Amino acid sequence: MPRVLTLDKSLSVLELVFSKRDGIGTRDLAGQLKVNVATAHNIARTFCLRGYLRQDPDTKVFYPGIRLMLMGRHPSYLRSLSLSASSIIDDLAKKLNESVMLASIDHGHILNLKYVPSRQALRAQESEDMSSHSYCTAVGKILLASLSDSELDSYLHHTPLQRLTPHTLCTPQLVKDELRKVKSQGYAETRDEFCEGLSAVAVPVRDPWGNIVASVGASAPSVRLQKTSQLDHALNELRRAANEIELHWTNAQSTPGEKAKRRTTKDLAAQ
User: Angle at the Cα of 254 (from 236 to 140), degrees rounded to 5?
Assistant: First the structure.
């Protein structure tokens, strides 16, 4: 039993550090997990020696290590997300009667994981790799807004910002201003930015620790998505679907004990 408890504490340390984008110090680790400082420090330092965590030599704050980040990007990661969300996306497309997409970001590439075109005659078609024009799509804006400053700068440096329509945001500063707005309001929208007459709205999909891992969005001719009531209806359905995807994806990969532990860690991260 003591070994099981030690393993449980160790995994809790790992999960809590992973949930803190700005890192976390030993005392905060100990306080939030209700263990003594020496125990928290010893566990975290062991993970540092194995490469799963790293500690800033000046501030002594712990961050996820490269080994943990590489393991988190296992090849089955996006496939499991896509499979978990597939039926939910199908149902959402039927409810909205518009084109619906699930997209994710992987090593700087924004990928179309699942796309259900509208059954109506006037509709849009999306490519599998959206990286070159993600800055003027709703799902793309959600994912770009989730990047760190350095990751976003790298994306903007390597991606030519083309003026596809008179409404396209085609300078780095305009894109950054828009992404700050997206972060603040919790959703993204476009109107005639990627294509004249096409509008879209999207919301984030988060992992159990609150990190954005995907976005789900709906696109439609602007005439069908121009009223406040139409936009609000689409947003409500998208948020409901995103929440369902989050629950389904987590539950599909967890035992009951793991589900409880992830909920506890997520609650701690929100404090």
Answer: 40
**Which tokens in the block code for residue 49?**
């020696």
Contacts of 147 (CB under 8 A, 6+ apart): 105, 155
pLDDT tens digits, residue range 219-252? 999 988 888 888 899 999 999 999 999 988 777 5
Task: Write the CATH number of the domain with boundaries 2-72.
Answer: 1.10.10.10
Query: Do strands 188-191 and 53-55 pair parallel, antiparallel, or not at all (unpaired)?
Result: unpaired
Query: Has residue 261 got a pLDDT over 80?
Result: no
The token duo for 215 is 């976005």
- Each residue of 180-213: pLDDT tens digit? 999 999 999 999 999 899 999 999 999 877 889 8
DSSP assignment of 122-153, as one string? S-----SB-GGGGGGSHHHHHHHHTS-HHHHH
The CATH class given to the 76-252 domain equals: alpha beta
